[in-house]
Amino acid sequence: MIKIIHTKTFSCADDHPIVWYTFDETNKALCGYCATQFVYEEKDFHTKMLEEKKLLDMGLKESIRQKEERTPSQEMQDKLEPIPCPMHEDYDE
Question: Would you say residue 56 lies in a domain?
Fold first, then answer.
């Protein structure tokens, strides 16, 4: 199996102890445990930023969706009047 890696230092832990590797001048590495071949591929700055923006946009959309989506129990709880607690006499104030 061949895996493309975008950082010079990386790890492999595919059903074996975690092992850290650093690419040499050939930009290739081979895991001594599972024989996975790794190839270093550099991404340009623009591509990296587009990928980061996509992840941030996905996270923001999910946050907004969760905020706007109310469960029936949450809606019911909002409609219920709070029950006064005798230990807090200033509850109504």
Answer: no
Quote the pLDDT of residue 89: 63
In a domain, 9, yes or no: yes
pLDDT of amino acid 88: 65
* Structural domain containing residue 7: 2-40
Residue 71 lies in a domain: no
**Complete DSSP assignment for 20-63:** EEE--TTSEEE-TTT--EEEE-PPPHHHHHHHHHHHHHHHHHHH
DSSP 86: T
CA distance 8 to 23: 5
Q: Specify the length of the chain in residues.
A: 93
φ, ψ of residue 64 to 5 degrees: the values are -65, -45
How many domains is the chain built from?
1
Q: Whole-model pTM above 0.70? A: no
